[in-house]
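## Example pair
The file below holds two records. Each record gives the amino-acid sequence first, followed by its C-alpha cell line.
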Amino acid sequence: MYGLPTDTIRREFRTRVVPNNGLNPVYNEEPFVFRKVVLPELAVLRIAVFEDTGKLIGQRILPLDGLQAGYRHISLRTEGNFPLSLPTVFCRIVLKTYVPVEFGDFVDALSAPIQAMSQAEKREKAMKDMGIDEKDISDVPVINKEQAKASKQPSNGQMSSSPNNTTAPQQVAAGGKKEERKEEMAFEGITREKLMSEKVYFKLLRKQPKDLEMLKRRHQKERSMMMRAHCTVVDKLVASHDKEKSATEKSMEKKLKKNKDSSTDLKSQSEGKVMNLVTEHKTKIKELVLVQTKEWSDMVQRQMTEEHELWREHTLQQNETLSRLLEDAQREQMTELSARQDRESRELRNNQAKHSMDSTKTVLNDKTIKNKQERDRRVRELNENNTKKFIEERKRFANKHSRQVENLKKVHSEQTEKMVAENQKALEMIEMAHEEAKMAARPETVV
C-alpha cells in the first residue's frame, strides 16, 4: 500500500511460492489485513505476482476509494501499466469502517438499535428487581472476552488483503463516551454554632466577664461615693436649717417674754418668720435635691454608656474572632481540596502511565503480529490514541477541579455573607437594648 507515510506499507504481505501449478495457482494464506488507513483518498493498493525466480509476471495498482467489496477478478498489467490478456488474480475484498476497540459496543448498538434497547431495558429491569439504582453505579471500564480477543487480533475497523482476501478501509471513526458522573468534594458546612465551640472563642468568653465585673465594681464604688457625698451635704444643710430655726424660735421667745403687752402681735410675727424660714429651707432642699438628682442621673447615664460600650466592644471582639475562625476554616478546606486534587492528579498520571505500559506490552507480546513493521505501527497508533485519551482525561479532571474550586468558593462566599449578617444582627441587638435602657431611664437620686 502507498499513500501517506503512516499508510505506506511495502514488501510486508507475501504468499508462499506455489510449485507445480503455474497455470492456476491457489494461494491459501492468511488474509492481508490493513488495520487502519488514515487517508484512503490518497492511498493505492499494489498487487504483484512473481515467478519462483523473482521475475514479475504482472501487477495492478488500485485506488482504495474505488474498491468494491466482494469476490473480484483483477486483471494484471505490466510494469509500464499496459494490460495483459491472461494473468488475472481472483480475490475477495472486504471493506469495513475503522472503529476503535473502545467504541465497538457503541457501534454495535447503532447498527442494531432495537436489540441494544431491549438489552438495556432488560438490564434496567433486572437492576430494579435487585433494588439497585443505576445512578449509584459508577462507570468502570470492563474488558470482556470479545474485546480482549479483539485486542489480540485485528480490530473491527481493519482492511485485509490477500490473493483470497483483500480489504480496503474507509476511515470513519464513530464514537461517544459516557460522561463520567461528577464527583463533588463534600465538606462539612461551617456554621456560627460550630465556630462558637472552638477553644479560642471559649477563651475569649471566659475573659470578657472579668472585664464586665471590674467595670460594675467600679461603677458601684462611684455610686457609693456619690451617695455618701450627697447624704453628707443634705445632712449638713438640714442641720444648718434646724439650727437656724431653733435660734429664730429662741429669739422670738425672748422678745415675747419682754413684751407681754404686745405678745399677740409678736407671736403672729414670730410664727410668720418661722414659716418663711421653713419655706426658704424647703426651697434650698429642693434645689439641692434637683442638683443631686441631675448629678446622679448623669452618673447613671454615663455608667450605662460605658457598660454599653464594653458590651459593644465584647461583641465586636466575638465577631472578629468568629470571622477569623471562619477564614481559617475556609483556608483549611481549600488546602484540603487542593491536596485531594493533587492526589487525584497523581493517581491519574500513574494510572495512565501504567495503562500505557500495559497496552504497549500487550502489543509487543501479541504473537499474531508477524513482523516488526506492523508491531511498530501498532505501538505508534496505540501511543497516539493513548495520548489523545490521556489529554482528554486530564482536561476533564482539570475542568472538574475548576468546578469544585468555584463551587467551594461560592459556598465560602455565602458563609461569609451569612456571618457578616449575623455579626451585624448581634450589634443591632446590643444597640437596641441600649436604646430601650435609655428610654426606660428616669431621673433619680438617693438621699
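Second record, same layout:
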Amino acid sequence: MLRLLFSLAAFLTPALLLAQSPTPRPVSFEADIRPIFKAHCWQCHGEEDEIKGNFDARLVRSLMKGGDSGPAIVPGQHTDSLLFQRISAGEMPPGKKKLTAHEIDLLARWIDSGAQPTRAEPDALVAGDTFSPEDRQHWSFQPVRRPALPSVSQPHLVRTPIDAFLLAQLEQSQLSFSSEADRATLIRRLSFDLTGLPPSPEAVDRFVADTAPDAYERLVEDFLASPAYGERWARHWLDAAGYADSDGYSEKDLERKWAWKYRDYIIRAFNSDKPWNELIVEQLAGDELLTPPYANLTPEQADQLIATGFLRMGPDGTGDG
C-alpha cells in the first residue's frame, strides 16, 4: 500500500508543481521593452539628429522596418530576428554596458508573442513633445479647478471645505464625525503631526488656558515656524529621493561626504515654505539657473547648486560625490 502511495506521489507531484507554477505575465512593449531600448539604444538609434544605420528604435513599426541591414524583427520568431541576434551575441549595444539576461529574455518573449505595440502609435514623432492628444486627456494635464462643495445634513459641523467632503462620505454610511477632542489631546496630536515630537508641559498648559477664538490657529502657526517642522516633514521628501549618507548598494558602501548639504537644503526649503515649482526646478536644473564660474555665490545661489544633489541620491556608482 505504501509503495502504491509513493508511486502515486511520484507521479502526481510533478503535475501538481506544474499546475501551481505561476503563468508569466504577458510582456508589454511600453512597460518592459521600450524602457530597455531607451536605456540602451536610443542614444544612437532615435534621439540624435543623425540616426545610425537608418535604424530608429523608438516605435514598433520602425523596429519592424529596420535599417540599412534590413528588417530588425521577425514577429513570432526571436531567433530569426536580426535585432535579437545582435543583442544576444553581445554585438549590440557597443561598449561594456550590455543587456542583462532578464532583459534579453523579455525581448525574446515579446518578439515570440508577436511584437505588438501596447497602444496605437503616433503617425510621427514630433520633436519637443512626446505626448499625444490622447495622453493629454489624462487628469494630470487638466487645469486645476475648485470643486463644488457637497451638501451635508449637518452643516454646523463643517469648519473647512475638507470637512464638507469628509462629512459627505461619512453620511453616506450613516456616520458622522467623532466628538471633538479636549485641548490637551489636540495640542498633542498637532505636535506629533507637525514636528514628530511631544509638546512641552508648558506649551500644553498655555494652550489649555488660552480661550481666544484663534488659539488653535496660532498654535498651528507656532508649530509650522518651529525648525522641527522642516526636520520632520523633509524626511518624507528625502525618503522619496533616496537620500542616504553612503552608497549602501555596494560592498564598499562608500560615504557620500556632501550628501548632508542636500538634506539641509530640503529642510530649509520646508521651513522657509519654498514654492513647490521652485523646489522642483532647483532640484532638476539648479545649475542651469546660474552662469559659471560658480564663485562668490549668495546663500540662495549656493542652494540652487546644492539642490541638484537630488539627481545623485539614488544608487549611483559613477563616482564619489
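Notes on the second record: The chain has four domains: 29-112, 150-178, 183-225, 230-312. Confidence is low (pLDDT under 50) at residues 1-19.
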